[in-house]
Amino acid sequence: MNDITMRLQADHLIMEALKEDISSEDVTTNSVMKEAAAGEVELICKQDGIIAGLEVFRRVFELLDEKTEITFCCKDGDAVTKGQKMGLLKGDIRVLLSGERVALNYLQRMSGIATYTHSLAKLLEGSKTKLLDTRKTTPNMRIFEKYAVRVGGGYNHRYNLSDGVLLKDNHIGAAGSVTKAVEMAKAYAPFVRKIEVETENLDMVKEAVEAGADIIMLDNMSPEEMRKAIALIDGRAETECSGNVTKENIDRLTSLGVDYISSGALTHSAPILDISLKNLHAV
Predict the structure, then answer these.
(1) Residue of 136, 193, 228, 236 marked catalytic
(2) Which of 36, 128, 175, 209 shows its CA 20 to 30 Å from the CA of 7?
(3) Which of 46, 85, 101, 135 is an active site residue?
């Protein structure tokens, strides 16, 4: 996540998170630290995984005090191990204490997503299939969570509703049919937008192909149905399969040869990676 993205898209979200945690003051810190005092604290990994969100972590403390100095011993995408020292923070002890939880919340959440994504992406190594995330993200956390998916080796599906056309079951119901929905999307959406259709059976797949869909999603079909659908599509559209895909069941899809597998679990079910700030002391 570069500096421009951070300032334009992330800073205001980080500030809202800080305001949520400090509505008026940090009573505990102000009780024990009545004056500014220089200190340092170590960033320690307590669990094996893939790290993501270091610059977001840094930005929390910079927004509280731009004089805070942070030196990292690793970078986003690195594999980290239990007990590893990942960085050192130096600055006003009051800032280190007040920013600790918000900074760790971001880093733990993003690293958990990167770690879980990495574990699924490894299962697709050697195939042409790309692992995609979805819009099933935590409100106001999408920019951070989708970034973490990329760090973990996955790819981003559309970022939001303005980013592409995805005709799901209720859109098709509203339009009246797959054919009508695709026709209406082609007439309305900018020509640079791809049109994807969610299908649930072979009849819908056939209709989507004939209507000229760019991408056809095979949703909650059995592996046997998906194989028949892929043969029916025969390269006339890109293919995506989805439907409660997790690390435990993705193996049933890896041999299908689809272009994409999407998994909401990457963002809505990944456990955090345990990370702590330890050994705070004055300097």
Answers:
(1) 136
(2) 36
(3) 101
Both structure tokens of 245: 């895909």
Predicted TM-score (pTM) above 0.90: yes
The end-to-end CA distance of the chain, in Å, is 31
Would residue 247 show up in a list of annotated catalytic residues for this protein?
no
Q: How far is CA 115 from CA 13, 59, 119, 154, 248, in A?
A: 23, 22, 6, 11, 15
Q: Determine whether 136 is an active site residue.
A: yes
Is 4 a residue whose pLDDT tops 90? no
Torsion of CA 231, 237, 238, 240, to 10 degrees: -60
Indicate if 198 belongs to the active site: yes
Catalytic site includes residue 75: no
Which part of the chain is CATH 3.20.20.70? 121-268
**Active-site hit among 100, 133, 198, 240:** 198
Angle at CA of residue 172, ends 171 and 178, nearest 5°? 145
Q: Is 207 a catalytic residue?
A: no
Residues 199-254 have pLDDT tens digits of 999 999 999 999 999 999 999 999 999 999 999 999 999 999 999 999 999 988 98
Catalytic residue among 85, 90, 130, 168: 168
Q: Per residue in 97-129, pLDDT tens?
A: 999 999 999 999 999 999 999 999 999 999 999
Query: Would you place residue 3 in the very low, low, confident or very high pLDDT band (cuts 50, 70, 90)?
Result: confident
The CATH fold of domain 3-117+271-282: Aldehyde Oxidoreductase; domain 3 (3.90.1170)
